[in-house]
Amino acid sequence: MDQESILRQAVEAAKQAQGQPQNNMVPPMPVPMSVQLTSGQGMNGEKFVILVLQTPVGQHVYHFDPDAAERLAEGLAHSARVAKTGLEVPTAY
């Protein structure tokens, strides 16, 4: 599935959700998602890593300082390695 069709599905889902009571439950299955990573600089010169997630329930933007972004990346890489084994090993980062 390409990014264009993912975004199209996200827009359709958002249109359908308008006017309905907001439901914050976790979907029981994976949903189409677009992930964007970029970096930026704040007004005071502080550096950020910016993560943008677009899903059928909306867009979420997260700002991480560079050290926190590295810890998140390491945790994600570790979780991916564990997922390939089929084991479930919860770890907090």
Low-confidence stretches: none
Question: What percentage of residues falls in helices of 4 or more residues?
Answer: 25-40%
Number of helices: 2
Number of domains: 1
- The CATH class turns out to be Alpha Beta
Query: What class do helices, strands and sheet pairing give?
Result: alpha+beta
Q: Which fold name corresponds to the CATH topology? A: Nuclear Transport Factor 2, Chain: A
Largest sheet: 3 strands, antiparallel
State which percent range the strand residues make up: 25-35%
Radius of gyration: 16 Å
Q: Tell me the overall shape.
A: globular
Average residue-wise pLDDT: 83
Taking the alpha carbons of the first and last residues, their distance comes to: 31 Å
Q: Assign the CATH architecture.
A: Roll
Describe the overall structure.
This protein is an alpha+beta fold and 93 residues long. It has helices spanning 3-17, 66-85, and strands spanning 34-41, 47-55, 58-64. It has a single domain, classed as Nuclear Transport Factor 2, Chain: A (Roll), CATH 3.10.450. Helices cover 38% and strands 26% of the residues. A hairpin with a 5-residue loop joins strand 1 (34-41) and strand 2. The longest helix has 20 residues, at 66-85. The mean pLDDT is 83.
